[in-house]
Design goal:
The chain has about 210 residues and is an alpha+beta fold. The protein contains five helices and seven strands.
């Protein structure tokens, strides 16, 4: 049995394809989240979830080259975040899913839930390879986003939102010191980098009195 919810979360990673912009990472997923991506309805879905203690969950993380933006809509105070995944990123993701499925089948899996609407259940490496050859639109893939980075460009006034220290142009006493300052994705959990940015900003404020 796999009891990933117990003790300190631990997982395996597959870093063989990092140079291709694909990092495959295992993680412990609670049943209420896992249930949303397990295929099937009614009794079929219930039977699959009854075997949750035999589930292992991996995700294919891709290094994207796309961009998005955050903007305001007239009459609506809530900002809108817009992002569109490109063809290269979609292909990277399908590549990562296929490699993950191969690893699972080598480990003895009977079914792999791909998260791809056109082929939600894979039962062999042959089916994983066939999935990789198909033309699949990004909208057909179950996608999640973690550790968003960017959106607050650092640079000169008029060209960027803040200066290199994170201080917002046109405002006093406000500085950004989170993942928003990153010019691009660093491909890993950014916690330590964000902590370093926050410490750097704090020292700047202290020095400024």
């Amino acid at each position: 049995d796999i009891e990933g919810w117990k003790e300190v979360p631990q997982a395996y990673n597959i870093d063989e394809f990092i140079d291709q912009g694909v990092f495959i990472q295992g993680q412990a997923v609670p049943p209420e989240l896992q249930a949303t991506v397990v295929p099937g309805f009614g009794h079929a879905h219930k039977e699959r979830m009854a075997g949750f203690c035999r589930f292992a969950s991996f995700g294919a993380l891709v290094s994207d080259e796309c961009s998005g933006r955050v903007f305001a809509r007239p009459g609506n105070p809530q900002p809108v975040a817009w992002y569109q995944m490109g063809a290269r990123e979609t292909q990277k993701l399908i590549f990562g899913i296929a490699r993950t499925a191969e690893a699972f089948f080598e480990a003895g899996a009977q079914e792999v839930y791909s998260g791809v609407a056109v082929e939600p259940i894979l039962r062999s490496k042959r089916e994983a390879h066939a999935l990789e050859r198909r033309r699949i639109h990004a909208s057909k893939i179950e996608i999640m986003a973690f550790h968003p980075m960017g959106t607050v460009r650092a640079g000169a006034p008029g060209l960027a939102a803040c200066d290199p220290w994170g201080r917002l142009h046109g405002y006093q006493g406000i500085a950004v010191s989170d993942g928003s300052l990153f010019p691009t994705s660093n491909k890993i959990n950014p916690q330590l980098t964000i902590m370093a940015l926050a410490r750097r900003a704090a020292r700047m404020w202290i020095a400024a009195g």
